[in-house]
Design goal:
With 443 residues, the protein is an alpha/beta fold. Helices cover 40% and strands 22% of the residues. Bound molecules: zinc ion (ZN).
Length: 443
C-alpha cells in the first residue's frame, strides 16, 4: 500500500470541536489517514512532504456546478438573466458536442485542483464524458445527467431514459470516486409525471436527486398559478424529498417551505457569485434558512458561465461577505461555518460523508496551503486567514484518496498544456458556429 507523510504542518481538522494541531504530522496509508498529530517511531513512507509553514485542511467539495460551462465564461457578461440565458447560453449550447463537454470539464478540473477542490457535484449533459475527466484526473464527483422530461427529441443527448440509466450504471465507478444522482432540471421545466418517474427510479435504485429549486419569485408565482403549490411543496408532495436531495439555490421560500426542507434534511447549495453577477434577488438569506432549522447548507460555484471562477476560496469569502452585507450584520455567517459548508457539508451532500474532516481513519482528501506569502502574515488566527485572505494560488498540494493530484503546484494527472489549447479551441468553435447559424437564420 502506498504511503505519504506530511511533516510538521498546522492542521485545521474541521472536526466538531474545531481542533487545530500545531507542528503536526499526517501519515496517509492507502486511501486513508492512518496517523494524525504524531507518528510512531521508526516509520517510513514512500514520499515525505515538508509541511513547515503550511496549513493542511480538508479539500473543498463544490456542491453545485455545471463544470463544462467553462467554454462560455467571459463571453456573456453584463446581461440581464433572461437575455444571458436566451441570447447567449442556450444559443451556444445548441451546438454542444460531447467533445466540448469533455474539454470544458477538463479545463474546470485543472482549475479546481489548482485551487484546492477535491470533488464537485456536476449537473450537465453528456456526463459520460465528465466521468472520463473524473477517471483521468483522480478527483471525486457526483455526476448528474440533466433531463428536462419533455420528450426525447428535446433532451440534450441520447434521451431521458438513457440519461437516467447513466446514473444507475455509473454509481460507484472509478474505484468509488464517481457517485451519481438523478437530475431533473427543475420543477419549472419538468412536468409532474416525469418527476414521479424520477421518484420511482430513486426508490428502485437507491439514488439521490439533484435539481434547481425556487431560484426566483416569478418561478414560485408560476408554480402557485399552475399547481396551487410552491415548488418546495410540490416536490415534497411528489415524494422527491423522501430521497437524499440536493436542491440548488432555494432563493425564494416561505416559512412552510423552509420547515419542509429542514424536516426532510434537504441539502441546499448556495452559489453567491452567480447571484451577485446576475443580480438575482435573495429573498431567503442563509440566516433565514438557519433560523428555520435548515442545517445542510453547502456552497458551490454554479456553472462558470455565470460564476466565472471555480475557485472555492472566492466562493467561501463572497458567501460570508454577501451574508454580512445583505443582513447588515457583521456577525452573520462566521468564517468557520462557511468553511464547513464548503468542505464537510459539501462532502455529505455528494455522498462522501466521511470526508471533509481530517481525523485518523478518514479518507485522505486534503490540501496544503503555503503560508509563506505576504498576504497571509501575520498569522493571528488561521481560520480567519483562510476565509478572508487565502487564494487558490496558495494551494501547493492536493491529495484525493491518498493520491497526490498536485505536488508543488504541478498537476500530476492532467495534461494541462493540451487541455488549455483544446478547451479554448472547442469554446471558440462552439461560439463561432452559433454566430454563423444565427446569421444564416436571420438572413
Ligand atoms: Zn445551476
Amino acid at each position: 500500500m502506498s504511503s505519504l507523510w506530511i511533516k510538521n504542518a498546522t492542521v485545521v481538522t474541521l472536526d466538531a470541536d474545531g481542533t487545530v494541531l500545531r507542528n503536526a504530522d499526517i501519515f496517509i496509508e492507502g486511501k486513508r489517514i492512518k496517523h494524525l498529530g504524531t507518528v510512531p517511531p521508526n516509520i517510513t513512507a514512500d514520499e515525505v512532504i515538508d509541511g513547515t509553514n503550511c496549513v493542511a485542511l480538508p479539500g473543498f467539495f463544490n456542491a453545485h456546478t455545471h463544470s463544462p460551462m467553462t467554454f462560455e465564461r467571459g463571453w456573456a457578461e453584463d446581461l440581464p438573466f433572461p437575455r444571458w440565458l436566451n441570447e447567449k447560453i442556450w444559443v451556444a449550447e445548441s451546438a454542444l458536442t460531447p467533445d466540448d463537454v469533455y474539454w470544458g470539464a477538463a479545463l474546470a478540473a485543472c482549475e479546481m485542483i489548482r485551487s484546492g477542490t477535491v470533488a464537485f457535484n456536476d449537473h450537465y449533459f453528456y456526463m459520460d464524458r465528465v466521468a472520463q475527466v473524473v477517471e483521468e484526473s483522480g478527483m471525486k464527483a457526483t455526476l448528474t445527467w440533466c433531463t428536462f422530461g419533455i420528450g426525447d427529441d428535446k433532451e440534450v443527448g441520447p434521451g431521458a431514459d438513457a440519461q437516467l440509466a447513466f446514473s444507475v450504471e455509473r454509481q460507484g465507478s472509478a474505484d468509488g470516486r464517481i457517485h451519481t444522482s438523478l437530475g431533473p432540471h427543475s420543477p419549472y421545466v419538468c412536468p409532474p409525471e416525469f418527476l414521479k418517474r424520477v421518484v420511482e427510479l430513486a426508490e428502485k435504485h437507491d439514488l439521490p436527486i439533484h435539481l434547481h429549486v425556487a431560484e426566483s419569485l416569478p418561478q414560485v408565482e408560476n408554480s402557485l398559478k399552475r399547481y396551487g403549490q410552491t415548488p418546495v411543496e410540490q416536490l415534497d408532495a411528489l415524494g422527491i424529498f423522501d430521497h437524499p436531495t440536493v436542491a440548488a439555490h432555494c432563493l425564494a421560500l416561505n416559512e412552510q417551505d423552509i420547515a419542509i426542507l429542514a424536516h426532510k434534511g434537504v441539502y441546499v447549495p448556495r452559489t453567491p457569485i452567480t447571484y451577485m453577477k446576475l443580480a438575482m434577488p435573495i429573498r431567503t438569506p442563509i440566516s433565514a434558512l438557519q433560523a428555520g432549522g435548515v442545517q445542510r447548507i453547502a456552497l458551490g460555484s454554479d456553472g462558470p458561465a455565470s460564476n466565472g471562477t471555480m475557485d472555492m476560496w472566492e466562493i467561501v469569502r463572497q458567501a460570508v461577505w454577501l451574508e454580512k452585507y445583505t443582513q447588515t450584520d457583521p456577525e452573520a455567517l462566521p468564517g468557520d461555518a462557511a468553511l464547513r459548508m464548503a468542505t464537510h457539508v459539501g462532502a455529505q451532500a455528494l455522498g462522501f460523508a466521511e470526508s471533509g474532516v481530517l481525523a485518523e481513519g478518514r479518507p485522505a482528501d486534503l490540501i496544503l496551503v503555503d503560508f509563506r506569502r505576504p498576504h497571509l502574515r501575520p498569522r493571528h488566527d488561521v481560520i480567519a486567514s483562510l476565509v478572508h485572505l487565502a487564494k487558490g494560488a496558495d494551494v501547493t498540494h492536493v491529495v484525493v484518496d491518498g493520491r497526490l493530484l498536485m505536488r508543488n503546484r504541478e498537476l500530476l494527472t492532467l495534461d494541462e498544456e493540451r487541455i488549455l489549447y483544446e478547451a479554448e479551441r472547442h469554446a471558440f468553435r462552439m461560439v463561432n458556429q452559433n454566430m454563423q447559424q444565427m446569421r444564416e437564420y436571420r438572413a
